[in-house]
Structure formats: C-alpha cells, structure tokens
C-alpha cells in the first residue's frame, strides 16, 4: 500500500477544549506521522477558499463563522493509506453517528463543532496541503 499524505485540521472547538495532544496521540498511535504543523486563526477569506466546494450550501455561513471563531491547528499526516486512515480515526461528520472511540465521538459536540477536518480524496489532499503549506514546510520521510 502506498505512503500518502493528508491534510488534517484540529478545529476551534477541540483547540478550546485543550485536546490537541490527545488528538495528536491518536494519529501517532495509528501509525501516522505529523510531518508539518502550524497554529493560526483563519480569516473569512482563507476559510471560505478552503471550503469553496461547499460555498452554495445552506450551512456554509455557519461553517465559516465556526472555523473563524478561534485558533485551529493544521497538520500534514503521512503514512500508509493516510487519507482513509485519518477519516476512520475522525468518525462520521455528525458526532451522533460517529463510531465509538473515534475523535468525533469522543471530542465533538455537534455537526458544526465537530473537532477535526480531514481530506477526503487524493485530489483534495493535494489541494489542501498546498493551500496551507509550502513544499519546503513539509518534512516528509517518504
Ligand atoms: P470536513 O470537510 O470538515 O472534514 O468534514 P466532512 O468531510 O466530514 O464533511 P463535509 O461534507 O465536507 O462538510 C464540511 C463541514 O461542514 C459542516 N456541515 N454541516 N448542517 C449540515 O448539514 C452540515 N453538513 C456539513 C460540518 O461541520 C462538516 O465538517
Ligand atoms: Mg469534507
């Protein structure tokens, strides 16, 4: 199986809950490596560009308001099957539907404040990593 990279965001609710380290441990325990990392506050423009695929959806204004409500921690995760593995660790979008033991089941409050983001395909991973990191910022081991 190929080594992949994926873009992960610890959203404002999880940063506010002080569980950055607990979420990083889940990535590491699953065999994913953090190969780039930064903490920042998203502007409306940056959050809107990131979630551009959802710009026509009714939930878009709430999504942008939430993503800009506090600092986020953004990382590139690297490992075998990293994109699907991270989505498994995250659990379903709505924490009410998320499997026991997933990040969203354990740390998320609602479909809006759902703790983490993860790229959903190789194409989105490539776009999303480039959106937040220069190639030289990614300390890949692959
Ligand atoms: P994400 O992109 O944040 O990793 O989440 P996802 O793939 O699981 O879900 P996606 O469909 O990409 O939606 C992006 C974010 O928008 C919010 N959302 N709200 N009210 C709603 O019906 C609704 N649907 C989506 C969620 O916060 C979701 O994470
Ligand atoms: Mg998504």
TrEMBL record:
Residues 3-140 form the Nucleoside diphosphate kinase-like domain. InterPro entries: NDK-like_dom (IPR034907), NDK-like_dom_sf (IPR036850), Nucleoside_diP_kinase (IPR001564), Nucleoside_diP_kinase_AS (IPR023005). Gene3D superfamilies: Nucleoside diphosphate kinase-like domain. It is found in: Cytoplasm. One of its GO terms (cellular component) is cytoplasm. Keywords: ATP-binding, Cytoplasm, Kinase, Magnesium, Metal-binding, Nucleotide metabolism, Nucleotide-binding, Phosphoprotein, Transferase. Major role in the synthesis of nucleoside triphosphates other than ATP. The ATP gamma phosphate is transferred to the NDP beta phosphate via a ping-pong mechanism, using a phosphorylated active-site intermediate. This is Nucleoside diphosphate kinase. The gene is ndk.
